[in-house]
Amino acid sequence: MTTSDPFRRMAPRLAVFASLLLLGACAKSPPQAVGTLEFDRVSLPAPAAERIIGIDVREGEQVAAGQPLLELDPAHTKAQLAAAEAGAQRARDVLAELKAGPRAEDIAQARANLAAAEAHAREARAYYARLLPLKDRNYVAAADLDRARAAAGDAEGKVNAARAALDELLHGTRSEQVAQGEAALAAALAEVEAQRVLLGKLAVVAPRAARVDSLPYRLGDQAPVGAALAILLAGDAPYARIYVPEPLRTGVQVGDRVRVLVGDPAKPYEGSVRMIRSEPVFTPYYALIGEDVARLSYLAEVALGSDAAALPAGLPVRVEFGGAAK
Fold first, then answer.
1. Which long-range contacts (CB under 8 A, 24 or more apart) does 283-287 make?
2. Over the stretch 148-194, which tens digit does the pLDDT of each residue have?
3. Where is this protein localized, as stated in its record (predicted)?
4. What pTM was computed for the model?
5. DSSP codes of every residue in 191-243
6. Answer CATH for 30-39+236-321 from 2.40.30.200, 2.40.30.170, 3.40.50.1980, 3.10.20.30
């Protein structure tokens, strides 16, 4: 037997192995994209910088829509509401006074003031008239005559002012003043409603059925305005937020069925593309696959069924396009 006999016997096996390698090289994995599992995050901001006086839930608890979550101290807001209500009542009374017009007593007083001014003016004019003939005989000083003339003019001016005041009362309130009073009342009532709404927000409730993901503040804390008092994860099941590579964009449409792989590749989940952005973004570092490093991608969301309801948010996922799970 020659040395080439072992190679001659192994040749069929090597040919089969080479064929398998070629088949494996020719088989292509389905197009895929990666991302993470997400829930709809609902953040409940602090409506006012008040102290937390009650927490009714714990992190991880499932809550129903309208269920109380926590409560802020309402003392300061109640005081502001009382002040706003008092301001509204004052504006209401001012408007009523404007619409009612001047009182009869005010008109009578204005008439009396006009009569007094007219009497004083007659006396001033008469005194000046008596002094005026004496000027030519040098029986009166020029300064005295000037003072008498000025007094007569001043008295006449007071008569005009008293007559104008009476006319103003007789004509009643102007329509523009009533309109201003109505606007002031509307502003005061709006402030009252704003304070009532704020007071209602101090009792923080769940806006929809969800799971409490985080309670950043504890009992007795005073969060600043706008800070998240509670973060909820809403939805019956998570969804996959993925980044579709630019070469696959034309082949991915809303409604397409896909395979979603989470952890165990032998247990895929069925999903459907529910959203895909029209504008590309740079692929995040954790979503880079092979040649996609230097390419753009399109943010998309894949809806999952009820069988994925127990999956937690944040898990990495891999989505394969080209058909649903079998």
1. 283/243, 283/245, 284/243, 286/34, 286/316, 287/33, 287/34, 287/35, 287/242, 287/243
2. 889 988 988 998 998 888 877 777 778 888 899 999 999 999 999 99
3. Cell envelope
4. 0.63
5. HHHHHHHHHHHTEEE-SSSEEEEE--S-TT-BPPTT-EEEEEEEEEEEEEEEE
6. 2.40.30.170
